[in-house]
Specification:
alpha/beta; five-stranded mixed beta sheet; binds FE2/S2 (inorganic) cluster
Length: about 400
């Protein structure tokens, strides 16, 4: 059933996010196609998707086959209506459209001879859609905020944190995420932001230039979720390595780990990734769903276990080549201390020397949770160290406190 976004003025704070940040596919025609981008992005939940039947139909051609679908929906929804498979990872066949806001460009297709995004394009009568991209297509992704970063991430080794002045690494941020965390820290970036659709080469050139200007060795991609567009990320890492061949250069990928299958990790390591930070979110699936905002239990379980397996695989296969750090979330509104302890025990069984950062999940985006006290964070660090983990950091309001 098609949808339309409905505005609830009594909840609206007139913050302007839904008009300034969202890439609304219907804005030119002044129509709503129910893509849901504004609903995902509104921090005050003043927008809601409701079902709206479409009386009229349009005929489209998908890879040479004809299909009749409702009018005024996105190409993504039209493909679903026509029975085209939907993927939950870039490794699966079918349409992979995880962010739904035009950020990741994973859903790029050839539409009437031009590469466009399935989640941002309105279906039209007579439209010709080819799911295979042209041979010479170069992937793109919305990227922004190329700058120095003072704090680093969970994939920044503790040793690298000493002796740095104002900035620890240079960083760029990728729009789009497959999670819907109510406490998302980077939500203006996640839900598309004001970036540009860059090729891997363009993004690597910009980040390398910032590295040169700030004279730093560490280069990081964060987000949003950096791994959504696999072809883009792999080419970006390879290009970054090509532009920075010196042995001091480090390429750091910051991720939720949910898509990092063995072959994806192999590909990134081969391309030149040297450091990775994986934010594990939870041990229990219910906790994982509460933290990530995902509603589909099977999908949440799959994403959670893929991330845990990614940590195990990296430690057991790439300990010489890639530095891997892990993030564990903490806020008593989302996760219990006993679950944090169980996460610590599972990490201990993988490798007692793995670097673990306990992250203070705080009130951002839609959550009104209380900020964890610094003393709570330090107590969690101590608890995990007492389990036998050797390198535990606590994120606090004054920065990371080390082992
Ligand atoms: S799903 Fe369309 S750009 Fe991410």
């Amino acid at each position: 059933m098609p949808f339309v976004a409905v505005h609830h003025p009594e909840k609206c704070h007139r913050c302007g996010v839904c008009s300034e940040i969202v890439d609304c596919p219907g804005s030119d025609d002044l129509i709503c196609i129910g893509c849901g981008a504004c609903v995902l992005t509104c921090p005050h939940q003043a927008l809601e998707l409701v079902e709206e039947p479409r009386q009229r139909k349009v005929t489209i051609e998908v890879n040479g086959d004809m299909a009749v679908v409702p009018e005024r929906i996105s190409v993504k929804e039209a493909l679903k209506e026509s029975g085209y498979p939907v993927a939950t990872s870039p490794q699966e066949p079918g349409l992979f459209a995880p962010c739904e806001v035009g950020g990741c460009w994973s859903c790029a297709l050839e539409i009437d001879g031009v590469v466009r995004l399935a989640c941002r394009t309105i279906v039209r009568n007579g439209m010709r859609i080819r799911t295979e991209l042209p041979q010479d297509y170069v992937p793109r992704r919305i990227m922004m905020n190329f700058s120095g970063h003072p704090a680093g991430g969970v994939g920044t080794p503790w040793q690298a944190r000493s002796n740095h002045s104002s900035y620890l690494e240079v960083v760029c941020f990728a729009a789009g995420c497959n999670f819907r965390c109510p406490q998302c820290q980077n939500w203006l970036i996640t839900y598309r932001g004001r970036g540009e659709a860059l090729t891997p080469k363009q993004a690597a050139q910009r980040l390398s230039l910032v590295r040169e200007q700030l004279k730093l060795n560490r280069m990081t991609i964060s987000g949003g979720e950096s791994t959504l567009n696999r072809a883009w990320l792999t080419q970006f890492v390879a290009e970054l390595k090509r532009l920075n061949p010196d042995p001091d250069a480090r390429c750091h990928v910051d991720t939720n780990g949910s898509l990092l299958t063995h072959d994806y990790i192999d590909e990134l390591a081969e391309a030149g990734m040297t450091d990775i930070g994986i934010d594990l979110k939870a041990l229990e699936t219910d906790t994982f769903m509460r933290i990530t905002g995902l509603k589909d239990k099977d999908l949440a379980e799959k994403y959670k276990e893929t991330a845990w397996e990614a940590v195990r695989y990296l430690i057991h296969n790439y300990s010489e080549k890639v530095f891997a750090g892990v993030g564990i979330p903490y806020n008593r509104s989302f996760i219990s201390i006993s679950e944090i302890s169980l996460m610590g025990q599972r990490l201990l069984s993988i490798d007692p020397s793995i670097q673990v950062t306990v992250l203070n999940y705080r009130p951002e985006f839609r959550s009104n949770i209380a900020m964890p006290r610094d003393s709570e964070m330090v107590a969690l660090r101590d608890m995990l160290q007492q389990l036998g983990l050797r390198t535990v950091l606590a994120q606090t309001t004054t920065g990371n406190i080390g082992p």
